[in-house]
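[Backbone geometry]
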Amino acid sequence: MTDNLENAAKVLEASPNYQIQQRLVPKESYGEPDPNEEVLVGIILDTETTGFDPEHDIVIEIAVLPFTFSRDGRLFSVGTAFQALQEPPAPLDPEISKVTGLKDEDLAGQTIDIAALEAAIAPAVLIIVHHAAFVRSFVERLSTVFQEKAWACSMNDIAWKEEGVTSLKLEWIALIFGLFFKAHRALQDCQAVLELLSLLLPVSGRTGFTQLLEAARRPTRRLWAVNAPP
């Protein structure tokens, strides 16, 4: 049956009238380091929240996916993910449930183990998030450990538009590369980000991860407007 499906897909792909989408299958490894090579640890992070205001909304799901890599941007092993749910103080907005698939009964009695979360983050030299500015504003309220790490954004630190990608939404980028997945659940989003970072981009011929590392190494500054009016 599998061979028949693969043969059918090849026939369709040979025609300009069809485009094949494959389910994203998470990998356990993208390669092996050279002997005695320095290996660094990064994490892909994603959250689901009760809304868009970090002052009033909270994280209801968080996932941390660790991986190892080289300084020149080669990806190696994928580690064991940390996942947690959190019960909010009020029932979920129906729109949030519709987008995430999470229901009040899924979150009932759930809490994020902050010590376990911090232990998962601790080895990482780099945190990667799709739309990092949004997620960072939420997770820094969970723990100060997030303030001590370098960050990179897989949405803004890769020249997607120059590579022919017209939308920065994660599921759309995946579709452009012929992949689909269950979007808006934290771990699945993390797995999709890592897979997309591993792929060669169509115009530059480089991986997205190589571009992202270069952007992450550029000096940046964060400014706070203390006591500024809203």
About this structure: The mean pLDDT is 93. Helices lie at 2-13, 94-100, 104-107, 114-121, 132-139, 170-176, 186-198, 208-216. The longest helix spans residues 186-198. The CA atoms of residues 44 and 190 lie 5 Å apart.
